[in-house]
Amino acid sequence: MSLWSAGRYEAVAQQISAIATRVVDTAGQLRPLPDADIVDLACGTGSAALTAAAAGATVTGVDLTPELLAIAAGKPGGDAVRWVAADAAATGLPDASFDIAVSNMGTIFVEPTAMMTEVARLLRPGGVFAFSTWVRDAENPFYDPIVEVLGPRPAGTHSPDQWGDPEVATARLLADFDRITIERGAHPWTFDSTAHAVQFVTDESPMHVDILSRLDQPTGDRLVEAFRAALDAHTAADGTVGFEASYAVIAAVRHPA
Fold first, then answer.
1. Beta-bridge partners for 182
2. CATH number assigned to the domain comprising residue 35
3. Owning domain of residue 128
4. To 10 degrees, what angle do helices 166-173 and 112-122 make?
5. What is the DSSP string of 62-92?
6. Are 91 and 117 in contact (CB under 8 A)?
7. Residue 114 resides in a domain
8. Rounded Cα gap, residues 27 and 19, in angstroms
9. Is the pLDDT at 155 greater than 80, yes or no?
10. Residue 2: pLDDT above 80?
């Protein structure tokens, strides 16, 4: 079972859909969307793919998790997109078959060397790659409790928010891309209450649900309480919970042949 079939990914997709729109808009500034061939890699439930299709592009959405593709295909406009169940780093799609590749908080979770090799292979010369990434913040109530309870990620392992470091992103892109742009943003996470925010972590966010599923009961309980305390610190007077998470939209153009 894919990590991303844990929980309810659509709850995450709904929260970050505005970033998907920004990714597609950024790509469209570099290459007009109407009649473009676009691939949405690690497309999840299709926010970026559907946005691109609505703008007149011919779109293929690729994701490793069939359950997410089924949700995407059932959305309004879903029948206008070709949905492919495949690893984003090994799609099996033809070489140089796309004008644009996009990804909304998707490809950042894939091993970067393999991912960049596949993106470069799929794009035509002069093609555009636009994607979003989380940027590491000094405080993050969705991540800090994991470090507090389980310890830091082992040195040398890939972390999605490494893409949020401009030097790292540029170094990974330079072999096959130029005209690199990195634009920062702040994403508002909002919930009706602390209980709702904790439920998002324990029942909906696939990454968190997967982590909790692999812990023994006492450790899992400690982690949930750490999330509760971290999220409670962001509770407003009306009981709602809200905080901002930094992100970036990165775009680059494939080297000419």
1. 250
2. 3.40.50.150
3. 3-136+154-188+244-254
4. 50
5. EES-HHHHHHHHTSTTGGGEEEEESBTTB--
6. no
7. yes
8. 13
9. no
10. no
